[in-house]
Amino acid sequence: MAAGVPPDALGRRVFCGTDCGTVRYVGSVSRTAGIWLGVEWDDPQRGKHDGSYEGTQYFKCRHPKGGSFIRPNKANFGVDFLTALKDRYGLNDQQDVQYGTENAVVFGTKTVEFVGMDSVAEQQRQVQLNKLVDISVRGCAVSHAGQKEEISRTCSNMKHINLSKNLISSWETVVDIASQVQNLETLNVSENKMRFPSTSTFTSQAFSNLKILALNQTEITWTEVLLCAQGWPLLEELYLSSNNITVLERPDNVLQTLKLLDLSDNQLLDGNQLHLIAQLPRLEQLILRNTGISSIHFPDAGFGCKTKMFPSLKRLAINDNKISQWSSINELDKLPSLRALQCNNNPFMDTEKNPETLKQLIIAKISQLEVLNNCEILPAERRGAELDYRKIFGKDWLEAGGHWNPEKNKPSEEFLAAHPRYPTLCLKYGAPEEGELKGRQPVTLKNQLLTLTIKCPEKPEQKPVEKKLPESMTIQKVKGLLYRLLKIPGSELKLSYQSSKLEGKEVELDNDLKPLQFYSIESGDCVLVRW
């Protein structure tokens, strides 16, 4: 092997300037002198060819312009973990002077030499490194662990390590480092293109306390994840973004402690792949952003029933996908524990132009949802959404066989498939009355006038007043109108309303920026004013 070229150079990761790649060939090239390295670059724009030169194929690249040859002296094969750590935190030999390692001190005219100061400086460095708990050597060209047991002797207190964007070329190197960190809880090795074990014989105790692991952009497959997971007995969070994972397998006896799984930016074959991970018992958060899924279906549960899949799932992200049918949103109501959903940038959202109506439809369709696209759903907002949903689709319900008389109420299977929560909403608020449905327009229409009775329940001497107000009028503007009417500062007013349809129930109008229609106020309702 030529000078400057490691004996295990083939397959190693290298930096050349700021560019990173993998060594695919070491040797001579026809009609040239000396040794060359054939490199497949992470960024194909850096390359010149596919690994061939003058008709001879020296190595192969995934991209037709992804490779080139460089001289060994241009390649940085990286450093060991401790060297990178000391450089990163200013604890290498060049910084000795700040720890008082000069060997002579002058007292007056006498020079006194201190024997053994080098060892004192080394001890001080050890103390500094031993204090480190949360460390980052991101982008520090780490390629190997270094001398055996040196890390455990030097940095015994580390718990959280960021090793992302380095020159680690195999999972074995990660194991070599982690096995020397007894209390390792968090590990980020993202942006290292690595070789992973292909058989289950490769097991280690290095990750026995690991809780959080990031393997984004490492080219790991799901099969390799499951093989490595045998060594992650306590893992709670696993990040696998951008790994070209297309198919999943059932995780038998592994990942059973997992609470968060991030599969974003992997183009899954289809939504049915999710069924293979649906029995993870403790999974609370699933991130499926930009995974190419076009539908979600839980076939084990019928209309209005809960699925046995994903029993603990509370937070789901399906934004930036290809979901085009509302039926997939209906399916999410089957998840027994779902509380938060992110679903922006899906084709089904283009079916409704008004964003407020769109939001109301999703809220009404998923009964236990508390947060939608990072916005909290207030109780009054849920109530308004469900009442409006009940009215908007009331005519469809009647035409499909729905009826106010329970004995005659037999909506079609097609209607129940499109609106599985409708029977529940009728039980909750009562079936929509015929008067509610006549001429009923979607909530997107503005400025519909409401005839409201305004009462001051704590001031009986104040006679009730009837007013016509546009449903788009905000609570703040209503307070301004009442100030002029009652001569009371709007800031001191507290408003609520009673529905003519739901006797005895009083709903607080607690958000000054929301319009009357947000609270599903209707003509005939009574606004109560207190101060």
Model description:
By secondary structure, the protein is α/β, with parallel strands linked by helices. It contains 13 helices and 26 strands. The N and C termini lie far apart (89 Å). Helix 7 crosses helix 8 (379-392). A hairpin with a 2-residue loop joins strand 4 (52-53) and strand 5 (56-57). It is elongated. An eleven-stranded mixed sheet has the order 10-12-13-14-15-16-17-18-19-20-21, covered by helices on one side.
Q: Identify the CATH class of the largest domain.
A: Alpha Beta
For the record, the CATH architecture of the largest domain stands as Alpha-Beta Horseshoe
DSSP helix count? Answer: 13
Overall 3D shape = elongated
User: Percent helix among the residues?
Assistant: 10-25%
**Percentage of residues in strands:** 15-25%
Cα gyration radius (Å):
33 Å
Largest sheet: 11 strands, mixed
Domain Ubiquitin-like: 450-529
Pfam family, one: Ubiquitin_2
Main location: cytoplasm
Domain CAP-Gly: 27-71
